[in-house]
């Protein structure tokens, strides 16, 4: 027997005083759905999610939740007024005995439930809102950019939680790896229309491109038909005027049909202008030490950055990535050690706090008021890579319309603020590009273009990011900051770092297992039994980890079963063999850990 839908939207229409955001939109969310909600920045993704959550009322149409269905929405800017601590806010709707759910989410998402609301950052508030939603366990979760302000470890925790849940969810996210892992269907908002495909985000780009190709073909056919009919009208209408009025009207209808077609929004006209070449050696850092009180950021850290390098800094939130970045470019002094900057450097900085943007300024003022972009005596022009350009024309290149030019910066979405900051950076030449969390809120098409530009950029790039897909596409060197001053340099991007670190982790795991085996007989038999909170969480997570490792081993064994792989692709064969050994060893260690925890839990 078919189950009733969790949520239905019937013939929804919505405007905000101008063109309709949606018109006649209908969709259904079923039990068990795992849906990616995608579309260009400004296409209405967050608005649609708020309509689904009942926070925005449509002009026309119905939003119908199934009988007894609870719908939970993760707020971007949660209102915490009236609550003393983040934990109090997150546990507001829970029974007193369910506080453990908030504590567990707090551990996974890395926020302190005891943190006073008054001193909490915006990121901590968002994590508390996410923990609240996870703890409430509604039948349908609506998640708007849940990975923003999360580091990679917290993203991995959330990813695993959502994999294991039976709750249906709809996700808006810029994190492709996150969407690929979790979603089984895709809702695509494109020019006010919402299309659905019963495949996850991994199939989205191919589906989108196919639909666009078909659309271009139909437009081409329509244009050819209009051209042919127009030629007939000019050449033969005088002789057949009375008999062919119907054909004339058909031509008018064809022209009206073409006029009614909505043009696709293009990609931002982004361009990186490389200034004069820097010296071959861009940065030389030797023996760096930096600490704040008892916290060590880096110790005895050395790095040489050569012209053209692509370097990524990764690690948990708060570990000091931005601090190290600022030391490398001379904006912050180390407590010990030296940093020497190369010659002829022209630096451009994209900061994660968007501090270069003043929310009270208009977009127009933000560009014309920039000293690097100001054109003397011209209030309506900006200097773009050495050439004057009208400010509205330049904003249009970054997909802002004329009406937005006089709007305040604070009215922009996260993705639009990122585009505005990119417009400021790309207006001037540079040969050293510093990107601190550049991917937050950017749509897929803009991310694609940014990655392509960085690939063709002749200068040097140093970036901080939690976006695994972006790291794999851009970085050639990864610096992993793991706390207590440890910063290790690995070749390659995120996946390469994981593979190399996995070998190190396994060696350490074997040593610790042997040490524990020797120590176990000497332990006091009267020692307390039972599991700590962390051990309980680990025991719950291990079955999924074992299942994942077994699946990866199966795929690698299938790949290596090809008898011609070694001669055809020796490098791929070598990497696959090493990965297989690593995962088999990891599986054995994880199975032993699971047995030990099961025995401890059983007392």
UniProtKB/TrEMBL annotation:
Residues 7-216, 283-511 form the ABC transporter domain. It comes from the Bacteria. Signal peptide: none annotated. The keyword ATP-binding applies. The keyword Nucleotide-binding applies. Residues 539-600 form a coiled coil. It catalyses: ATP + H2O = ADP + phosphate + H(+). One of its GO terms (molecular function) is DNA binding. Keywords: ATP-binding, Coiled coil, Nucleotide-binding. Belongs to the ABC transporter superfamily. ABCF family. Uup subfamily. This is ATP-binding cassette subfamily F protein uup. It comes from Sulfitobacter mediterraneus.
